[in-house]
Amino acid sequence: MKVRVDVMLRPGVLDPQGAAVRAALGNLGFEGVNAVRQGKVIELDLAEEDPEAARAQATEMAEKLLANLVIESYRVEI
Amino acid sequence: MKAAVLVFPGSNCDRDLKVALERAGADVAMVWHKEDRLPEGLDLVAVPGGFSFGDYLRCGAIAAHSPITASLRRHAARGGFVLGICNGFQVLTETGLLPGALIRNAGLKFLCKDVALRVETAESAFTAGYDEGQQVTFPIAHHDGNYQIGPEGLAALRGEGRVAFTYVENPNGSVGDIAGVLSPNRRVLGLMPHPERAVDPVHGGSDGVAMFGALLGALAGA
Fold it and tell me: Is B75 a catalytic residue?
């Protein structure tokens, strides 16, 4: 079963890369970009076929490794 | 005094750290990350700088889950000393042995230069060779040295005198100008600047000598 984990910096944590992308978009002439936040998408292919069990596995993986909860939040999508 | 330097794929300050510890009088073993146990009778485990696992996922995140880190946790839990420098500091925050996290430098650039630091506490085996408030110069070489911690964590660090070093001029956006922090028992130090690259006049400075000397002195008497 394919599971997707999105990892983003928590609101309030400075995202210097997002800020640099925003500045570059401005340089390209894209106006009105108020903010850019950059995160990660992690795709997992799990042997587990039960959606809720797969969600539980991916959640544990996110908590232990995929996200650093001091600075990041995550979302699991089946 | 017996010390181990952990070595991960991508570590590049491991031998510098070994030399600095040996010069201060330590007996140093290099331990590959796939080992599942540390040598017996260790006083200090040192986690070196570099780019462990290519900084994949997050700096230090993969190393923090290497086979050897279970032994590192046990060493720290029984009151052993741990020193993490640069990537080693990132590894220690990722293992949870030290609070906070290190993110991309606020200015986005990799920084490689000497910086002035203020010694915030002399009350640790690592910093006892300095005076509180003393300025020292260590090199920095990092892309992700921007120390972040929430308001409560910051208040705890300050209240317990666990900020070990601050930058005189903040190079990377770190909260409270923090360059290095101590664990609650003051036996785990993590810092972004490189004391092991300042232990000989040919390095351009030798302010790091006092850290390794004080550490060895404290552990020799332990």
Answer: no
